[in-house]
Amino acid sequence: MFQDIPKSKLLDMYKKMLLIRYHELTAKELFASGKIPGFVHLYVGEEAVAVGVMSTLRDDDYITSTHRGHGHCIAKGLDVKRMLAEIMGKKTGVCKGKGGSMHIFDYSKGMLGANGIVGGGAPHAVGAALAFKLKGLDRVAVAFIGDGAMNQGVVLESLNLSAIWKLPVIFVVEDNMYAMSTRSLVPGKLQPRHSAAKSYVERALGFGIPAVEVDGMDVLAVYEVAKEAVDRARRGGGPSLLHCKTYRFFGHFEGDPLVYRDKEEEEMWRKRDPITLFRDKLVSNNIINSEELDKIDREAKAEIEQALKFAEESPYPEVEEALTDVFTDNSY
Questions:
Q1: Could you tell me if residue 332 is inside a domain?
Q2: Distance of CA 39 to the CA centre of its chain
Q3: Model pLDDT for residues 8-42, shown as the tens digit of each residue
Q4: What is the C-alpha to C-alpha distance for residues 256 and 67, in angstroms, rounded to an integer?
Q5: Which residue numbers delimit the Dehydrogenase E1 component domain (predicted)?
Q6: Which of 93, 113, 194, 223 is the least crowded, having the fewest Cβ atoms under 10 Å away?
Q7: HEC states along 133-151?
Q8: In the structure, what pLDDT confidence band is assigned to residue 90 with cuts at 50, 70 and 90?
Q9: Domain count for the chain
């Protein structure tokens, strides 16, 4: 696997995972200090999914995201300075401080928006993929959705349409085991809580869509299956679904008391930290030594510290700006 990926890409993947981690830990501190309005849903623990998938995409490919979308944004190349500013509601933010944590959008990076509606991004990705096909472009769209979203009718409709029209779209299910606080399958119990399917691969196969389940804590495993799906889509092979088994290290949202998870389960998953796993693989396969990785770690941390300084020093929008950017100028 390592022979197929240039060292520069491997190191870029490692740094992006670190950027996501430090960005999210910073957002956690900002929220605790009352500097972030609204809710914050952290991506800590799931970094391997975003980076593994995004490392197979081009700049002109599109993605749609979820309420837990910061990691997708950073992996797609959005400016972390403007992201932190956006989350803090500042004028210099990606969306001028008007979108906030759950509605970050950057058309220039192919990021069609995070979405507070569960499953809401799936039909948008299908629409983008349809546009690519009608225009004869070899571009792909990726819809990131959670395990809870797989029970939404609009997601099943999106799967169905993409299969009928053989669209270049990949559905990435980030299964962190809990739809908010409801676990799909409870160990030791036969009765499912929110999904009768043992794997979302079954759902996709029901629509004739190729699907695979993958370890979402292993960035290289995610990269491998994502690359196959993306390459197939570019060749006109139609949609795919990736069921990524992962885990969020914190609550559904900041302030979540987490009474529905036990500590043993959390400790087990934290031992499989995706950044630590990737680091160990890079070192054990003689790709790079620990000292060089420590340097990348310091660079990522410094970049987030600079982003925080930029965000904190940025001004808030004027009250009058609330009425701007409401209507399009028909330039799209």
A1: no
A2: 17
A3: 999 999 999 999 999 999 999 999 999 998 889 99
A4: 15
A5: 16-319
A6: 194
A7: HHCCCCCCEEEEEECHHHH
A8: very high
A9: 1
